[in-house]
Every structure is written in structure tokens, then in C-alpha cells.
Amino acid sequence: MLAEEHVPIIAFVWRPGEISPHVSGMAQRTGSRAIFDFSTLGAETWNSFFQKADPAGHISDIKISASALMNLPSAGS
Prior knowledge:
Blueprint: E1 11-14, H1 21-30, E2 33-37, H2 43-53, E3 61-63, H3 66-70
């Protein structure tokens, strides 16, 4: 069995209202990650927020609460 390689990352946490091409571009240019904190928003608002705030689909990392994660519908339902 091969040992997994651990690669350290540098990330900055942003509020959902701060999603912009500027923030995404900064993360790409610096090799860091932009994490958007959705822990205060309900899961029902995420999809519509992503479509309005990031139509190009550049969001790859979000922070959510554990309870929101547990209440997500399963992919098969």
C-alpha cells in the first residue's frame, strides 16, 4: 500500500458576498485556495446563490456547518 502524499495548502476564508472574479483570480495567481463560508446559510439557498454569484463555476471550496451537511438530501433520492 502506498502512503498518501500530504501537500500543504494555503487558503483564505471569504464571505459569500465576496465571491468575485478578483478573489478567484487572486487564488489562482498565488496558488492558494479561496474557501467561501456558507455555514450561516441554509442548504436551500446554496444552489441559487452559486448560480447568481459564480456563473462561471469557479467555486471549488466551501465551508458549511456539520448539521447542514447531515441534512443534505442523498444523491439517490
